[in-house]
Write a structure and sequence with these properties.
- With about 300 residues, this protein is α/β, with parallel strands linked by helices.
- It folds into 2 domains: about 5-85, no CATH class; about 95-310, Rossmann fold (3-Layer(aba) Sandwich).
- Helices cover about 35% and strands about 20% of the residues.
- The protein has helices at about 5-15, 20-30, 35-40, 50-60, 65-75, 75-85, 95-105, 175-185, 190-205, 220-225, 245-260, and strands at about 110-115, 130-135, 135-140, 145, 150, 160-170, 210-215, 235-240, 265-270, 290, 295-300, 305-310.
- It has a 9-stranded mixed beta sheet. A 3-stranded mixed beta sheet has the order 3-2-4, with no helix packed on it.
- Helix 1 runs antiparallel to helix 2 (about 20-30) and helix 4 (about 50-60) packs across helix 8 (about 175-185).
């Protein structure tokens, strides 16, 4: 896929109906020869729409007007490129816990959670947040996570978590203003509710910081998993991470995680995992595939705002 196609697809399948600002901006980038030339000078993995848009926002640039956006990138090309080279899309969306919760609640309790690609670790607190699945409310603490649920009965109780740890190449610290500013810059412009949720989830994490380890998802996973307490069910999980991992390393991770004790929850775009026969996702939007130990369970939206359970 060319960079122009990447941005055009992002506009239609990811941003349409969710962020009019980013839908219009991504469409404009897909047709702007100057911006495409700027992106072509970066490594392929650093050309992602969310990374470019987040860096411009982080640097104080405009994203509401495509023309002003292009002018800002042209005038600050060195600074934008430098930030894109050293940063990654580490969107730490606590709302994704709403998609993970039904699976976590159904596993043998208590749980030892280990997130791969944990960013600041905000998804390591599914037991501390509150949830709303239509008319069903669950939990009393933290931010309230709304999820439109189809095809399944939401859990009646929160999971019991006795240990939580995260692995990331560049873990972020919710007590560091610069790290929180980067997390904020990755939130799409219209999503004020997600900014409120970020602040509330960051407060939960700051009150009881998780164990976050700087490391590789293959080389360092076994050592961290070995620290999980005996008597707890180890759960290795990740959301929207594997697309950033080169294919040979991705295959090595899938092989490794399958041999660990406990369970593996993945919530990734279907293309990143071994191919299986699946029904078409709802509508024309982009969905992740939620799976337990490699078995597909549901289609989910990237911020946890919707999940559609697959037929048995």
């Amino acid at each position: 896929m060319t960079t122009a196609e990447l941005y055009a697809e992002f506009a239609v399948r990811e941003a349409r109906g969710i962020s009019p600002t980013y839908a219009a901006l991504a469409h404009a980038v897909s047709e702007d020869s100057h911006l495409l030339a700027f992106l072509a000078a970066l490594p392929e993995a650093k050309r992602q729409p969310n990374l470019l848009f987040g860096v411009v926002r982080f640097l104080g640039g405009p994203v509401e007007d495509p023309a002003a956006f292009g002018e800002f990138v042209a005038a600050n090309a060195g600074a934008v490129a430098a930030q894109m080279r050293v940063r990654a899309t580490q969107t730490n969306e606590a709302g994704r816990c709403a998609a993970l919760l039904p699976v976590l609640a159904g596993l043998p309790q208590p749980l030892a959670l280990l997130e791969v690609g944990a960013s600041a670790g905000l998804c390591l607190y599914p037991d501390r947040y509150s949830y709303r699945y239509g008319d069903l409310a669950l939990g009393t603490g933290g931010p309230v996570l709304d999820c439109a649920a189809t095809g399944f009965t939401p859990p009646a109780a929160l999971p019991q978590v006795v240990w939580r740890a995260g692995l990331d190449l560049n873990p972020l610290d919710v007590t560091d203003p610069d790290d929180v500013a980067w997390l904020d810059a990755l939130i799409w412009p219209e999503h004020a509710h997600r900014r409120d949720r970020l602040r509330a989830a960051a407060a939960v994490a700051a009150a009881d910081p998780p164990r976050l380890i700087r490391g590789d998802l293959v080389e360092d996973l076994p050592g961290l998993a070995a620290l999980a307490p005996a008597g707890a069910t180890l759960v290795v999980f990740h959301t929207s991470v594997l697309y950033q991992v080169p294919m040979p390393h991705r295959r090595a991770f899938v092989s490794l995680v399958g041999d660990l004790p406990g369970h593996w929850i993945s919530n990734e775009s279907p293309e990143t995992l071994p191919r299986v026969d699946l029904p078409e996702p709802p509508g024309g939007n982009l969905y992740n595939l939620l799976a337990l130990d490699g078995r597909p369970l549901a289609w989910t939206r990237s911020h946890g705002q919707e999940m559609v359970w697959l037929a048995a």
